[in-house]
TrEMBL record:
SUPFAM superfamilies: Isochorismatase-like hydrolases
InterPro entries on file: Isochorismatase-like_dom (IPR000868), Isochorismatase-like_hydrls (IPR050272), Isochorismatase-like_sf (IPR036380)
Organism: Clostridium felsineum
Protein name as catalogued: Peroxyureidoacrylate/ureidoacrylate amidohydrolase RutB
Originating gene: rutB
EC number(s) per entry: 3.5.1.110
Keyword Nucleus: no
Isochorismatase-like domain ranges (all copies): 4-144
Coiled coil: none
Keyword annotations of the record: Hydrolase
GO molecular function per UniProt: hydrolase activity
Enzyme class: hydrolase
Domain of life (superkingdom): Bacteria
Family: Belongs to the isochorismatase family.
Claim: Cell membrane is one of the keywords in the record: no
Amino acid sequence: MSKTVLLIIDVQNAMFNGEEGSVYNGEKVLNNILKVLNKAREKDVPVIFVQHTDKEGEYKEGEKTWQLNEKLSPKEGEVVVQKGTWDAFYKTKLEEELKKLKAEKLVICGMQTEFCLDTTIRNAYSRGYEHNVVIEDAHTTFDSKVLKADKIIEHHSNIWGGRFAKLIKADKVNF
């Protein structure tokens, strides 16, 4: 059995009440993330939270909008990795933490679909994590100038599924 790690990306207050407003289906997606988080904790699956951190603005360390959503409440032993780009691996301790855990498979959810999730999912695959799962009803984003959020989500899920990851709904996740 391969060692699985739950990776929760950028579920921060700015996604719900930041400069851009709230992400598409924010509360529903958050509830699905919490379902998966609770399942992981019940099975003692390691959890890593990724937190976008900038030098200024709403993602500046210490700002209320920078903080992880209070419903997540990382527990003792759960790792929080801060990142400054869309890629959770770039100039962070994520790879080091995954190696410590002997991770072979990542279960990925969070925010924003076309930025931090997409970049991290593709990089994870390129780094040899080839059996990943994306929780298809536990990632979201904002509307863009070109596409509505639901179409961005649909497009990226279509690209990831069967190529970079397997898609599973939150209710179907078993660790």
